[in-house]
Amino acid sequence: MKTSLGAVTLAFPLPAFLVGSYDANGRANIMTAAWGGIASSDPPCLSVSIRPSRWSYAAILANRAFTVSIPDSRLAAAADYAGLVSGRDHDKFAQAGLTAVRAEKVNAPYVGESPVAIECELYKTLDLGAHTLFVGRIVDVKAEEGLIKSGGGLDMAGVDPIVFNSGGDYHRVGESVGQAFAIGKSFKSPK
User: Fold this and answer.
1) pLDDT (tens digit, 9 = 90+) per residue, 11-34?
2) How far apart are CA 164 and CA 158, in angstroms?
3) What's the CATH superfamily of 15-187?
4) Rg of the chain (C-alpha set)
């Protein structure tokens, strides 16, 4: 039996994205966003939801660009910190001991210590009430060489990404439970 929790913002797992942008003075900033993910395959797009009150909001609109760095478990405390303070008042890169790397294809920084960085041009916005959905067209993905599989995907265990639990903590991604596009074939009807 299940118990109703009502209309709450609960999903599992949520990403722990580090969203990078440059403010009006050209200062690199990051914020942590858990509300986001892949939005389209053609064109390749990624989305993040951001409140208009956040420092990154105006920066992304002004530069029409942002990055998403995927933090690994070593960066969990830095990712949490980036969501605790505002870029208005804090140099989050410096205070967290992170390196701001200028993206090659968009006007935004990414976290140098992160194993994966995604460069996005702002494609569309959608006002959803308390948050605005920023859809970025992915123009490049950068990954540490040792993490790239022979087929072009990434080694999830090597990336060691953290995910956010809306219950209030971060987790590592666990072991594989099966090969995608294969383990479900046993349910297909014979032709």
Assistant:
1) 888 999 999 999 999 999 999 999
2) 18
3) Electron Transport, Fmn-binding Protein; Chain A (2.30.110.10)
4) 18
